[in-house]
Design brief:
Blueprint: H1 3-13, E1 25-26, H2 29-39, E2 46-50, H3 58-62, E3 67-72, H4 75-84, E4 89-92, E5 106-110, H5 116-126, E6 132-138, H6 142-145, H7 156-164, E7 165-173, E8 178-179, E9 186-193, H8 202-211, H9 219-223, H10 229-239, H11 252-263
Helix pairs in contact: 5-7, 5-8, 7-11, 10-11
């Protein structure tokens, strides 16, 4: 979809972008094509799109012949997509409350910036079996995704990203590629699953959140909410973790090992 098409649909349907949902509709056809290509989708794939909006990605995705499910929180947009796009199952709900028995093969989303962390945590916790994830995010937010220990940005999200698989910063997207135009620059990023993703689960996400619940406190004190002091001491000793360690000092793999020691 180009800018003219987006504006025409908005005018005909009486659609006004909702700032509370962070709605900015992608209208650059070259960027749209690049994102779809990055997904590496085959006809046998089950594809999950989060926040399809007016269908800028949904239309070309639906033409690939895959099993496509789109989760849209906006009732008006969901109704429009259901009546205008064939080849896609449109689900009208908040993705954070979305339930599915099947794990998708590929996930793609122009993630609303205000819920990026929550959505990505949910994906890596509940849908970590997907082999590929492609996201559009706020460019500045990449610092929270691609970072390591002992940095201010390091936390549960960065750890989940590292454990899920390989990360690629694909390209920047200018604000002019959207209707309406946001005040920030976006970025397209991708992840390819590795075996380290096997540890990921909703329980592991909760474990990480507990580890970072109070960043300035020692990790042992944060873990007191999920395990006994005896078990914590034994786990630290077996894994060679310092008694005074803070969560921000541990590598992603150490969190995986610690989780298995304490929670399995």
């Amino acid at each position: 979809m180009n800018r003219e098409t987006i504006k025409e649909i908005m005018h005909e349907q009486g659609i006004l972008p909702q700032s509370r949902f962070g709605q900015n509709f992608l209208c650059d056809e070259n960027i749209i094509s690049s994102i779809v290509s990055l997904c590496g989708i085959s006809r046998e794939d089950h594809v999950l799109e989060i926040g399809p909006g007016l269908g800028s990605l949904t239309v070309p995705l639906s033409e690939l012949g895959c099993d496509l499910t789109c989760v849209e929180i906006d009732t008006g947009l969901a109704a429009y997509l259901s009546s205008h796009i064939t080849g896609a199952n449109i689900v009208n709900c908040d993705f954070l409350k979305y339930e599915s028995a099947a794990c998708p093969d590929v996930v793609v989303s122009n993630i609303p910036y205000y819920v990026m962390t929550d959505i990505m945590k949910r994906l890596f916790g509940d849908f970590s079996g997907a082999r590929r994830m492609v996201f559009m995010v706020e460019d500045e937010a990449v610092a929270r995704i691609d970072c390591g220990p002992n940095s201010k940005q390091y936390g549960p999200l960065a750890i989940l990203c590292k454990l899920y698989g390989s990360f690629n910063y694909e390209f920047r997207v200018p604000h002019t590629a959207f209707v309406p135009q946001p005040n920030t620059t976006s970025a397209v990023i991708s992840f390819s699953r590795r075996d380290t993703a096997d540890i990921l689960s909703p329980e592991f996400v909760k474990f990480l959140n507990a580890c970072f619940s109070m960043r300035r406190k020692m990790l042992k004190k944060n873990l007191a909410a999920v395990a006994s002091s005896e078990d914590i001491n034994e786990a630290f000793s077996r894994l060679g973790i310092s008694e005074n360690a803070r969560a921000e000092e541990l590598e992603p793999a150490q969190f995986a090992d610690l989780y298995l020691e304490l929670m399995s």
